[in-house]
Amino acid sequence: xxxxxxxTDFVWSDHVGPFRGISEDQARxxxxxxxxxxxxxxEPDLIAGLLAELDPLEAEFEKLLREKLGGRAFIARADxxxxxxxxxxxxxxxxxxxxxxxxxxLAHDLLGPDxxxxxxxxxxxxxxxxxxxxxxxxxxxxxxxxxxxxxxxVALTDADEExxxxxxxxxxxxxxxxAHRPTDLGFECFPEVPGKAVxxxxxxxxMAVFSSLTPHMTGPNRSAGRERKAYIVQFAQDxxxxxxxxxxxxxxxxxxxxxxxxxxxxxxxxxxQAEGVPVR
Length: 280
Fold this sequence. Notes:
This protein is an alpha+beta fold. It has a single domain (about 25-260), classed as Jelly Rolls, CATH 2.60.120.620. About 20% of the residues lie in helices and about 25% in strands. The protein has 4 helices and 18 strands. The strands form 5 sheets. Strands 1, 4, 5, 8, 13, 15 and 18 form a 7-stranded antiparallel beta sheet that branches. The chain has a 4-stranded antiparallel beta sheet with strand order 6-14-9-12, with no helix packed on it. A hairpin with a 5-residue loop joins strand 16 and strand 17.
């Protein structure tokens, strides 16, 4: 497989404990397969409260798509699939959610002691969405160094193969960022997986934890009336930078949305800490 032009010397480093939140088996799965699943992490009441703030933001964006943007903007399509970026800028619940202890522990164990929120977005896939979302690595969209950051794909509703749960290509993360090509619905690193593909069904409140280098896709939503809602929360090492094709670098430290979640292994002082977020 062809690698990204900026990926010249990547070497995957296996994770070594002691770990704060994950188990040795989960660390081995992450290093070997590029992902693991955490079931029933968040209480239903917490997810309901989050949806109470995220649903109106998504509805507002879909209205804009339909009325002002001709039904489409980049990879978003009205009545099919929407991407609402940076809810933390407008939703206090989302901002607190990103500071949940489970995320801090995952970030500590998989990235290190100094970590920032890198990106957050909701992705709603509507019933009848006929297209799969292409195979891609998250770092294939906007190239970041260090190449490895952390994606937490949180199911806000039940996600299964019928309505478009994540599908992972295990083991292909260890070579770093692959070359991606544009398609009609986002970037693609390969049209068909060169190996096995593993569906990761998730109950609401569960999440898939995977590397920015793990190839994944989601299928169509063939369900009868079941909208698939996900909140994607991503974390990167403090000091991470976006690298443009011309080698220009931009620090990933926008203070309003790329705030620290760990400093020296501890929760930063000030701001919402989400200490009361119930996590199973």
